[in-house]
UniProtKB/TrEMBL annotation:
<dbReference type="InterPro" id="IPR007569">
    <property type="entry name" value="DUF559"/>
</dbReference>
<keyword id="KW-0255">Endonuclease</keyword>
<dbReference type="GO" id="GO:0004519">
    <property type="term" value="F:endonuclease activity"/>
</dbReference>
<dbReference type="InterPro" id="IPR047216">
    <property type="entry name" value="Endonuclease_DUF559_bact"/>
</dbReference>
<dbReference type="Pfam" id="PF04480">
    <property type="entry name" value="DUF559"/>
</dbReference>
<protein>
    <submittedName>
        <fullName>Very-short-patch-repair endonuclease</fullName>
    </submittedName>
</protein>
<keyword id="KW-0540">Nuclease</keyword>
<dbReference type="InterPro" id="IPR011335">
    <property type="entry name" value="Restrct_endonuc-II-like"/>
</dbReference>
<keyword id="KW-0378">Hydrolase</keyword>
<feature type="domain" description="DUF559">
    <location>
        <begin position="61"/>
        <end position="158"/>
    </location>
</feature>
Length: 173
């Protein structure tokens, strides 16, 4: 029996094949797929060997206890793979920084920005440039939007993921 996976264009393709001895061989394309968002397969993008500063562990624990409202609301929406079965990490150390949320299987950081001032924007720019130099992508959202427009924020996150990680089955056949 062959499982079929619907492509956005409505054409099915095999995700595995059964060999003569009954062993199932998974299509390489499907091993790369993390989830499907709005009919678009989302390709995994592991970024390995990220730098880690163990001296930030104490600060990390303090930050987790602080429980900023926007972060709490967002976390409740995505924890336990509630968002398209994607696994999110909260408060992750990468290099000399602690990021708000991290999706390891995509190499994607989600940052919730509070009120900004010039120094903070400069710092955030330097920080984002460093994180992107590691091969990571950063999706920024405002604390205000998370607290007041969560459904819009989640659609924007879906759109960002589809734009940067989406693929079509026909491109791999």
């Amino acid at each position: 029996m062959h499982l079929k996976f619907p492509s956005p264009g409505g054409v099915d393709f095999k995700v595995h094949q059964t060999l003569k001895d009954g062993v199932v061989k998974i299509n390489t394309f499907m091993k790369e797929i993390l989830t499907v968002i709005n009919g678009i397969p989302i390709r995994r993008n592991f970024v390995e060997n990220l730098p880690y500063n163990p001296h930030l562990k104490v600060l990390l624990r303090e930050k987790r206890k602080a429980r900023i409202l926007g972060e709490v609301i967002f976390w409740k929406k995505v924890r336990a793979k509630k968002f398209h079965t994607i696994d999110f990490d909260r408060q992750r150390i990468i290099g000399n920084y602690i990021v708000d949320f991290y999706i390891k299987t995509l190499g994607l950081i989600i940052e919730i920005d509070g009120s900004s001032h010039d120094e903070k924007e400069i710092y955030d720019g330097i920080r984002q440039e460093y994180l992107e130099s590691l091969g990571l992508l950063v999706f920024r959202i405002s604390d205000f939007d998370v607290r007041n427009n969560l459904s819009v924020v989640m659609r924007e996150l879906e759109d960002f993921i589809v734009l940067h990680y989406g693929t079509t089955p026909s491109s791999k056949i």
